[in-house]
Amino acid sequence: MGDSLILVGRVAGAFGVRGEVRITSYTADPSALLDYRDLKREDGAPALTLLSGRPAKGGLVVRASEVETREQAEALRGLRLFVPRSALPEPDEDEYYITDLIGLSVVTPEGEPLGRVKTVQDFGAGDLLEVQPPAGASWYLPFTKEAVPEVRLAEGVIVGVRPAEIEAEDAPE
Question: Are 19 and 46 in contact (CB under 8 A)?
């Protein structure tokens, strides 16, 4: 897997007049960003070194060593913030980082190839894996136990049951 960078937040703008920065956090617990401390840019270059922070609506308000004025904080608006994959805790059993799923092969329970995971989306009703077949349009697979009975990360394989097949099984005789 190497040490890829994981998107953990985005600078939302300045907070107040003393150079504090508002960050929209993409972590389950926004204050986890403070544990990472050294946030990177997409290319791996240093972005912000967090000195302190407190929870705020939708994320955090932080002090960063690189920012002293409201203008500097405002200039960073939109900056995407990353941490190395190695900085993240190992996920619990049956939990996965989205980045680890992208690119995996998707096969039927019988082992027939369905495609590869192109993206992971959440339109509000839970995670959906966008599967890109070898030819044709991509399609969505709900990331549920029924639709994805198995994830074999070490082998780079996801076992997927296409939604139409799930519905067919549940249909009354």
Answer: no
